[in-house]
Input
Amino acid sequence: QVQLVESGGGLVQAGGSLRLSCAASRSIFSINSMGWYRQAPGKQRELVAGITAGGSRNYADSVKDRFTISRDNAKNTVYLQMNSLKPEDTAVYYCNAVLLGTYYRNDYWGQGTQVTVSS
Output
């Protein structure tokens, strides 16, 4: 089991920055991968950025060179630094954690944090 608590969302003007935080209830060394997803009204939830236990990162094309995912192992926290924000980045952002076993995959989600970018 993993509980995830997000923070850091808010309202920002286009071109601004925000940093989201996701605190996990257990050591993130024991979590196979963590990531940030977002869901805008009327759209499907999409992966924004992910980071594995080994430190490999991946990003959606739409956020490459603007967003950075990182982790602080001592604080069991994953961050999403968002720069050069655009109105199309407006969405509810969700933290995700994945635990993998030989025969299963369990996904855990945070409650979501709203990010609104005004033009």
